[in-house]
Amino acid sequence: MRGLIGNRWAELGAMALLIGLVGLILPSGYYFRVGALVLVSAIAALGLNLLLGYAGQVSLGHAGFVGIGAYAVALLPTYWGVPTLLALAGGAVFSGLLALALGRPILRLKGHFLAVATLGLGILVAMVLTNEARITGGPDGMPVPRLELFGTRIRAPETWYWITGGVLLVATFFAQNLLNSSTGRALRALHDSEVAARAAGIDVARIKGIVFAVSAIYASVSGSLLALLNGHITPDVASFLNSIELVTMVVLGGMGSLLGSLIGAAVLVILPQALTIFHEYEHLLLGSFIILIMIFLRDGIVPTLRKRFTERGS
Amino acid sequence: MSLLAVKGLGIGFGGIRAVDNVTFSTEPGKIFSIIGPNGAGKTTLFNLISGVYRTESGSVTILDEEVTRLSPEALAARGMARTFQNLQVFFRMSALDNVMVGAHVHEAPRGLSHLLGLPSTARENRQTRDEAMALLTRLRLADVAERTAGNLSYGQLKRLEIARALASRPKILLLDEPAAGCNPTETAEIDEIIVEVARSGVGILLVEHDMKLVMGVSDRVLVLTQGRVLIEGTPAEVANSPAVIEAYLGTGLPSLEATHA
Amino acid sequence: MLAQFLQFTMSGLTVGAVYAVVGLGFTIIYNASGVLNFAQGEFVMIGGMVTVFAVAAGVPLPLAILLAIAVAAIVGIGLHRLAIEPARDASPVVLIIITIGGALVLRGIAQLVFDKQLHKLPGFSGDTPVNFLGASILPQALWVLGGTAIMVALVSLFFAKTMIGKAVLATAANRLAAQLVGVNTSVILAISFALSAAIGAIAGILVTPITFTHYEVGTMLALKGFAALVLGGLGNPMGAILGGLLLGLCEQLSAGYISSTYKDAFAFIVMIGVLLVRPSGLLGSKLAERV
Ligand SMILES: Nc1ncnc2c1ncn2[C@@H]1O[C@H](COP(=O)(O)OP(=O)(O)OP(=O)(O)O)[C@@H](O)[C@H]1O
Ligand SMILES: [Mg+2]
Questions:
Q1: How far B198 CA lies from chain A's nearest CA (Å)?
Q2: Residue A275 pLDDT > 80, yes or no?
Q3: B157 with B180, same domain?
Q4: I need a surface site. Which of A248, B91, B128, C289 has the fewest CB within 10 A?
Q5: A74-102: pLDDT as tens digits
Q6: What is the mean predicted confidence (pLDDT) over A265-282?
Q7: pLDDT tens profile B61-112
Q8: Which domains does chain A have, with CATH numbers?
Q9: Which of A188, A253, A195 is nearest to A41 (CA)?
Q10: B156 with B181, same domain?
Q11: Would you place residue C289 in the very low, low, confident or very high pLDDT band (cuts 50, 70, 90)?
């Protein structure tokens, strides 16, 4: 396996190339919309990958942060006239701080317990969004004021595709920076051995808090972009099911592979779109799909392919 | 003033006292060995000193500073480093990254500039990498630096743990059976490294079953049986002590001359 | 005053009994296989739904109940064979996600085979509330409490007295050792899943006359059953029962006296709180991690 440095530009380049080429061949607005949805999900999956794939800490409640980001750009501009971009930043900061505050105690837990505590956390967010119907519109959701940049409203799916693609590249760049630093080494170390990490002087609680916060910020930004792209938002974005989908994206693409997050997101977003004719079978198909991935593709697409290549190479 | 002073240290697990009222102290540049039969409490003693277990009674001081019940990371910041009897390697990371993690205490805790990839991060990375490479070379691991640790041999992993511990430039180094499972050549190498590290001023606590190694390198030896100190003295004093011979024979364990894993 | 308190307590114990049984189901499977089965709530749903539809199709109630229990047990075995056994060596979290996938599949099938409506059964002893110290209590609530008590007693007897029960415990303690002494562990695991599914289904049948059923009730039940488990202490069957009853009580009392808006949130707040303060739960024991 090559060190992180060698892979770094290759990974970012591959991602940019993929986004660019796909953007050139997409035929219509509908496809750009699906493309933008993939990119938006990839941002959240990327953040979750830092937590789950690299640091080895599970969150089954990450959609809660997606929900916070989504409702930040819906509520703040609607009720308090906050500019949309500021609302997006506000949501991200709030998510980050919440994650930091809750992360310290929650991430002390391991395995099952961590999974379930984060799951509870996500469900609580979804409940608040559903129950505070007076301002959130309850289960029916609410409209999201459109984003205005340089005096024009951003509506076209094409534009959204390129915006979300840009954000994903920046998000990848930051994630690589983090991984390629002492903080990144520390978070990968605690995945393998917490005792050894602590004996090496790593403040495990602090590092876990940082990754949890960064991944929450990624999820929040992803939620904000999703809300702006859709123009309407319901508490479903924060649902338990969405949290599970995010985890499945990370596992499918490959834990510990940033490029994998994009691939995983693409499969999990495009597949249901392709299967909309089978709407009645949505639960059944998604459930079967999750089971099959976890049984047969547990190692993830990108790591599996990489292994094939290196084995053949040597 | 001792480098490390342990007084009346103890802990029990459901009835049995795994470590009971252990007292000793070590000096910089000296090798202090702890021996005893399997289950005597040597690893538990290390776990207490390095903060992995919470001490129930007694105290630990480093250069007269009270450090009892401090966390492992706080102890690392005060100059303590250790290796583990049952390998605790970061198996998914490269050998080089493993050793770089060892230098964590010398790197600035600046999450934000790490995220932004500021030039200070690149500088820090370069310095840590150079130091880690030097250590890998010293432990004959330079040619596997980029390999994932999970793919290394047992002997290499044992040395990797030592390299990682040294990367923190410790004042006190705790080695828990560093030569276990190594062949005579590898054992001799580790022997040499331990002596060399001690000569550079580091105080070493060594747990080892290989009596030849222990008797050859130690300045002082402490014998632990059933959690208690049986005797402490120079290697010669310990080797000739009737109590020690009886204890070892009494448990049916290998005699002092025998080497075992 | 007293009447109101009794009322809330009674409804708390009734829903709590269901959480307790779900928690017990979790425990049986967890102890035998180390898997946390989040499709546990779907067994409750299957119990209720199959009974409702069988009765509607003209099957007599007792027969419909037996049918529902049998269906749930078969589904439990199928879940184990098709989804969990093939991933036996996976990490706990992967296994959790597999069971969540399983829950989705079961929900999807229920939605196709049955429908998306709310359903109820008539109470076994009628739906006229009886007056008790001013509180009006549904006779079905007594069925739920009595049924749960009997089930718990039978399950305990099963583990304590029967060869199969002991084999399950042996498998739980050490799968390899159990295999060596001739226990067919694969059969044992299937039995655990069937048993756990059956008791879930029974709870679902008993409670459907009070709380109704729906193809989606499983998720919440699984989560609350798990909260009960955490509250009581993972792995301890009595802990699951105690946790379930306590959780149901707290939930109904807080809904009655404070506000019902966040009634469902309560379970999760309690769960997270317990995890943070005492991860081993009320009846669990603490363990030091070995290095
Ligand atoms: N976390 C723990 N929980 C329960 N008992 C423990 C724990 N850690 C150690 N022990 C017990 O403490 C005693 C001492 O064990 P320890 O590992 O310290 O022995 P040791 O001297 O290192 O032996 P060896 O030479 O085999 O490494 C043993 O009886 C062991 O079972
Ligand atoms: Mg030991």
A1: 20
A2: no
A3: no
A4: C289
A5: 999 989 989 989 999 999 999 999 999 88
A6: 82
A7: 999 899 998 999 999 999 999 999 999 999 999 999 999 999 999 988 888 8
A8: 2-247 (1.10.3470)
A9: A253
A10: no
A11: low
- Residues B255 and B176 both lie in one domain: yes
Query: Which of B149, B167, B185 is the last residue in one of the domains?
Result: B167
Ligand 1: does its nearest atom lie under 6 Å from the Cβ of B42? yes
Note whether residue B90 is domain-resident. Answer: no
Q: How far is ligand 1, taken at its centre, from the CA of residue A37, in Å?
A: 54
Taking the CA of residue B68 and the nearest CA in chain A, the distance in Å comes to: 15
Q: Which domain holds residue B130?
A: 96-167
> Residue C127 — pLDDT band, cuts 50, 70, 90?
confident
Residue B91 lies in a domain: no
Among the candidates B121, B146, B167, a domain finishes at B167
In a domain, B250, yes or no: yes
Number of residue pairs across B and C with CB atoms under 8 Å? 8
pTM of the model: 0.89
**Residue to mutate, B43, B84, B209, ligand 1, most ligand atoms under 8 Å from C-beta:** B43
**B18 and B143 housed in the same domain:** no
pLDDT digits (tens, 9 = 90+) for C231-244: 888 777 888 899 99
The CA distance from C94 to the nearest CA of chain B, in Å, is 19
Q: What is the pLDDT of residue C133?
A: 79
A49 vs A310, residue with greater confidence: A49
Residue A295 sits at the chain C interface (C-beta within 8 Å): yes
- Locate the chain A residue with the closest alpha carbon to C35: A112
Cβ-Cβ contacts under 8 Å, B101 against chain A: 185-186, 189, 197, 200, 202
Q: What is the pLDDT of residue A314?
A: 46
Q: Residue A68: is its pLDDT beyond 60?
A: yes
Answer whether C32's CB lies under 8 Å from C245's CB. Answer: no
Which residue minimizes the CA distance to atom 6 of ligand 1? B13
